[in-house]
Structures are given as C-alpha cells and as structure tokens.
Amino acid sequence: MNPYFTNPNNLLFEFNETMLEAQRKAIFAVAIEIQKEEIKNLDLYLEKISKAKKEFSEHNYENDANLAYCLFTLAEIIQLELKMLVSLKEDRMAEAWDILITCEYNLGTVIRNYPFDQDHLQNYLNRLIDYQKTLFPKMMFHSYGGIVKESHCSICKLDYGNCNHFKGKLYNGELCCRHITEVQMEELSVVENPADKRCRAISIENNGEKIDVLTLRKII
Length: 220
Ligand SMILES: [Zn+2]
Description:
Order of helices and strands: HHHHHHEEEEEE
Number of helices: 6
Distance between the termini: 56 Å
Bound molecules: zinc ion
Strand order of the largest sheet: 1-4
Helix content: 40-55%
CATH architecture of the largest domain: Up-down Bundle
C-alpha cells in the first residue's frame, strides 16, 4: 500500500528531507565519494516515489499523480546535478554539459506544472544557467528548421492537434509530448540561442588541427 495515501503530507515531508540532504551535497567542494554515495541514495528515493506516482495515477488521483511527477523530477534533477559535478571532477566535460542542459529543461517542465509557489524553482533555474556561463565557454549551436508532416500526442496517440492535450503539460502523472514521426528538413543553421543546447559545435579548426571546444584539447 502506498504510504502517501493515508497521509499525503508524508509525500512533501519526505521530499523536503531528502532534498535538503541532497542539496547540501550538490556543492562543488563536497568530496566526490560523498556525492557518489548520495547519487545511490537518491536512486532508492526515486524508486519509491515512482511507485507512488503509478498508484496515484491508477486510482486517477490526478493532482497527486501530477505532484508526484514534479517531486520525482526535482529529485532526479538534484541527482543529475550531482552527476554533473562528478563528471566535471572526473574530466568528462561534454557529459557534464549535456547533464546540465537536461537539468535546465526538466526544471522548466516542473516550473510549468508546479502547483505551489515557484520562486525557489526560478532561483534554482538561474543557478543552473549561471553554471553554464561560469563553467563552460561561450558556444555555438545547431538549429534546424523543417515542416512537421506527421506527429502524435504521447497521451492519447491521436494526431497532435486533434486532441485536447498540450505538450509540456501533465495529465494524471504523465507528461504530454509531441512525438514527431515525419519531418521535411528545410534548413540547418548555426545559432547562439538554439531550441536544444545539447546540439552544439563540438570542435573548432585551429591551424589545421581539430580542437575540442570545451577542453581545447586536440582531437585525434
Ligand atoms: Zn492527446
């Protein structure tokens, strides 16, 4: 039996406790082995809250299921942030960048759907953006334009636009996505503000040599 059914406040209480502990460790100076241990601890919490979300959703407790989705995603973002710090310390810069951007996008989803005051989430988002500016160089990105020929709603599987679901919104603990199955490419351009910051220029040419944009190491 889902322990949160009997007292839904337990859901928030446990979440706050877990996040407090994880946030304390999601600081660069904290020892890498302590951060790795916290990543494992969060796995257990994520498993628990994922089960709760499933049960809420099976009972059609939509608000609770949506809240559980938000809390799961926030805990996952903190776990990702810890993974990013580990990647930085272990000299895996490209991986650290991708994780950081995933954190930013997932947090955006939570902010759009969060039922409570969002100021602290907005501050958190600003911190993730500050990380991008202070830990990584300025980069160029790829962006492509095209005409969507076929796409489906992830919730009801109908053609996207022919149902009442909106992408980026939660429905009974599930995020609505637009699954694009056919697209006609129109153009590929290099931009400063792309739709997806993970689509980036990886190398630059310097005196006939290929250089990694992040580390400035030669790419052999
Ligand atoms: Zn739909």
